[in-house]
Every structure is written in C-alpha cells, then in structure tokens.
Amino acid sequence: MAVEFRGTVRQWRDDKPGGLAVVDVPADLVDQLGGRRQMRVSGTVEGAPFTGSTMLVAGGGLCVGVSRAALRAAGASVGDDVVLSISPAAGGSGARSDA
Predict the structure, then answer these.
(1) Would the CA dihedral through 51, 13, 38, 83 be positive or negative?
(2) Using H for helix, E for strand and C for coil, what is the string for the chain?
(3) Taking 60 as the threshold, does the pLDDT of residue 93 lie above it?
(4) How far is CA 65 from CA 71, 97, 98, 99, in A?
(5) CB–CB of 63/23 below 8 Å?
(6) Nearest to 23, CA basis, from 5, 35, 42
(7) What is the C-alpha to C-alpha distance for residues 52 and 67, in angstroms, rounded to an integer?
(8) Which of 86, 85, 87, 83 is nearest to 6 (CA)?
(9) What is the pLDDT of residues 6-33, one digit of tens each?
(10) How far, rounded to the nearest angstrom, does the alpha carbon of residue 41 sit from its chain's CA centroid?
(11) Is the dihedral of CA 82, 87, 90, 96 positive or negative?
C-alpha cells in the first residue's frame, strides 16, 4: 500500500553538508508502511521514480533517504518541500534472517 505525503528535504547530518538527504515520514503514516523499521521503499518524489531506504530517527521518527540523482530528476534540493508517494519495495522488506 502506497502512502503519499509532503515533507521537507533535509540533510541526514547537519555536520555533513553534501551528504545524505532525507525526508521525514509523518508519524501517522509509519504504521501503514509496516512500522518503525528499516526497509527498502520505491515510489516517486515530485512524480519522478526513485528507490530508497527508510531509517530510524532518534526520538522515535522514521525518514526515507533520497539520492542526489532522484532529487535532480525531481527538480528538488535540500530545503525544498516535496511530495512523496512510497511503498515497501517488492522483495525488499529489509528483514534480517539469523538462519
């Protein structure tokens, strides 16, 4: 199930300019994505297709990483508000097996 939301592109770490860009997932949508866990996702950012991974945020949040290439394709950059539509990627649950 895809979820759509608007968020602001920000740096993962403020002390690493030019590093990883992320968009925070609204708290009320986290359960619809499968809960607060790391997973591969696919969808669109401003209508441009992309794949990324969710990451846990300190304090209980969840965000999704967006590559520079995906931002370029979307015509967006850090600081911009963007619309994302994402869902867990097929076969990319991110679950680990201890087997």
Answers:
(1) negative
(2) CCEEEEEEEEECCCCCCCCCEEEECCHHHCHHHCCCCCCEEEEEECCEEEEEEEEEECCCEEEEEECHHHHHHHCCCCCCEEEEEEEECCCCCCCCCCC
(3) no
(4) 10, 23, 26, 28
(5) yes
(6) 5
(7) 7
(8) 83
(9) 999 999 887 776 678 999 999 999 999 9
(10) 7
(11) positive
Q: Which two tokens stand for residue 76?
A: 């967006």
Q: To which residue do tokens 């992320």 refer? A: 22
Q: How confident is the model at residue 92 (pLDDT cuts 50, 70, 90)?
A: low
Over residues 90-94, the mean pLDDT reads 59
Instruction: Record the tokens describing residue 59, joined without a space.
Output: 């304090």
Position of tokens 């969710």? 54
